[in-house]
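Re: beginner question about structure tokens

> Can someone show what the tokenized structure looks like for a real chain? I only ever see the sequence side.

Sure, here's an example I had lying around. Input first:
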Amino acid sequence: MTDTSDALVQPAPPEIDEETAAVLARDLWGVRGAARALGSHQDRNFLITPADAAPRVLLKIANPSVTAAELEAQSAAADAIVRAGVRAPRAVRFADGSTVRPVVVEGVTMQARLLEFLEGETLSGYLSPAAVREIGALAAAVDVALGDLVAPAAERTHQWDLREAPGVLAELGEYVTDADLRESLSRAADAAWQVVAGLADRLPSQFIHGDLTDDNVVAGDPVTRVPDGVIDLGDLNRTWTVGELAITVSSLLHHDGMDLARATSAIAAYHAVRPLSSAEADALWPLVVVRGAVLVASAHHVIATDPTNEYAAENLLHEREILRQATSVPLEVATALVRAATGHETVTLDLPASSPLLSGSPSVSIVDLSPTSPLLDEGRWLSDSAEDELFAAGPSAARFGEARLTRSRPGAPSEPATVALGVELQLPDATQLTAPWPGTVHPTDDGLELRTDTHAVTIDGCRAIIPADTEVAAGQAIGETAGRIWIQVTRAGISAPRFAPASFVPAWRTVVADPSALIPGLTPAPVGSDDLLARREASFADVQEHYFADPPVMVRGWREHLIDTDGRVYLDTLNNVTSVGHAHPRLVEAVAAQWRLLNTNSRFHYPAVVEFSERLAALAPDPLDTVFLVNSGSEAVDLALRLGQAWSGRRDVLAVREAYHGWTYLTDAVSTSIADNPAALQTRPDWVHTVPAPTGDGAYTADAVARVEELAAEGTPVGAFIAETVFGNAGGVMLPDGYLDAVYRAVRAHGGLAIADEVQVGYGRLGEWFWGFEQQGVVPDVIAVAKAMGSGHPLGAVITTREIAERYRTGGYFFSSAGGSPVSSIVGLTVLDIIRDEELQRNAREVGGYLKERLQELGRRHPILAAVHGSGFYLGPEFRRASGEPATAETAAICARLRELGVIAQPTGDHQNILKIKPPMVFTRDSADELVAALDRVLTTGW
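And the corresponding structure tokens:
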């Protein structure tokens, strides 16, 4: 890099105190109010709060090197941006139309303006995908707005113009006192600038904002934190247009959870508004690297020359992270990400013409390490020795491009590097390796490398058998194996990792070739379809919704974890369906054994249905002794309601608001959750009556009893009262003490039945109680239960008295084809055995209690977490704003952020502001800690 003049680097301005700033605002603009200093690298900025409650304004005193003409250009640029529909701080104009006035401080003349203050927040902490996209679109909108700006006076040479980066780094490099940092910074910047220099004459120029970063955009909505305005045009200049985007993207890289793949969504959004040319796409990431280098060098310079500048000192850590991220992959890989995001062609690296690498073409078998591999069942993938054990079986190979589940672990807060960028082989000792193409052999610490001008093949785990720097012909022996070897083919001069995150793999494929063809008979891992969601939407009814807008494709479960096609492991806090955990070996074996013997309908006579019915009846309190078996919770509740109608001879039902009971005609009729059906209360049949959900302060018990009496007095006494025994749909809210006892008594006094909906909360999940009604000290007339009974198998039940069950015959007989089938009955028996033998109810009590305590402690540090409802493994952390309003949008965003951190959670309740924490009952203390740590990170860094 070449040297340049001192004019590139702006001098530090004199200090200005807040009192002086207030006087300047009063004397020059007639604004009286208090001044508060704001941070800046080079200028002096003050927020003025007028005493007369007028809108706040910004006093901006420019660096002494900045002229009045330049500032007038900035004022004109702000006007142009506002005309384009983007919020920007317009300058207060004097009567003559000008916006600038000189001020003298400590004998130094500087130029000052008074600007509108854009209310809102700059971007800090975590940035949502929407915020990342929008800052890219905002940068493009500003560039389009400034495309026709003519301001010759603002064309200047300064340190933030990326065209001047070589000179700036030459001048400021000496201020980077850490020799290792200075060397790595210089090396990265030199390599990047070499690319930029080759493209410079094809990069269009115009006026740009010049510092459109996370610190210089504002979000007017504090909930979404999506930017909608720009501030600080102090670096306005005519330069390469793509430099704007490089500056914007670089500012994203220090944010929590950010990586290059996520940052490219800002690039795609920019490109959608102002398309990048192929040359601009190729120059963009090198300019990001250069920007990172300039930021680090400049921060060191400011700290050395202006030691009191706390703003610069605080930002240095961010700027070093920007440079680290920008250089975390080779430029070629980052550029491939950019080209893919902008729709420009990328070229996959292919092998040159080649011959086999292995002498004698030994036969190898495939070691399947993918997420769906049967070799990894029953949690074998968690063993550190799993790969060694599977390779030990004989000559074998693990495939290129395969996402290895063995490379993933629970608790990882970011996308794991699971996809193999090479082939791994286990071969007999002393298998000879031959050169697949002509090249030069270079022994390495781990094996050898065969290099050409275009490619390099690395073979680790072998022994070179020829001297270093020997040129060889194709087919010539070059080494021998010593057991397991790793084979990787890259573009010459590229160093690649063995494994990469799936989102980076297409970019890595531009510099890493598939070596499978070098191994006779070996094929790469199959490539998954990327149209699965479109196919689902084309064939599966839309009303059957899925979690998340861009759902991961889940292919395996184990205990309290779910695993997607890329091998990422997610903590499942949501699945009360799989009560004993995903893929429980006892359940798998029991189902397979029974299915090999018999599966038919329950009209046949076989042992399992009898044994299961006896077990269920024994779990219920007296006098409940008779069981119906069905396929789901909806069917169980439907049947329970039919029993109520048959018993009482009346259709009228009393239900609790905000509840969901199912999708059949009867269960939907009594479901009043507006989250599931916004018109629920307005579309109830006239025979469905409701009472308020007892989820807060109020005389709920007395009011419910009064409603029962009113209906009886009106000549429509209820035939049944149905309620969840713990208010599950509201996040596990406990009913008031004595509530069910009083309502049950009132309903029974008029000949009705009391129905306990235990579909979500029953079966030991609450920890302290097997059934939710036990917490209320009552016995219902009918229990409806499902979900946990089958641990993922469709299974439900109704438990009642013999007398009530027999009354059903007045309307005919009952039959369910698969309800109580041999397989279903065996599933039910096995689940009960597991709950008993593994003490899962005790686990729910102890670990669930521990989790609730930790969540409550989190609430004491984060006021938005207003309450934690529930018991055991049915918990409901509730989020409310400072005003007390339900934090609905925030809760949805929190769930999305948790998913990014590897935790599956979803909102519930009529306001959708409660997390439904109802995990498999094998949930461990470590998993509880993982959940709390993830939620703490979200509440600390943002969503």
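Each token stands for a local structural state, so reading them left to right follows the chain. The chain has 24 helices and 36 strands.
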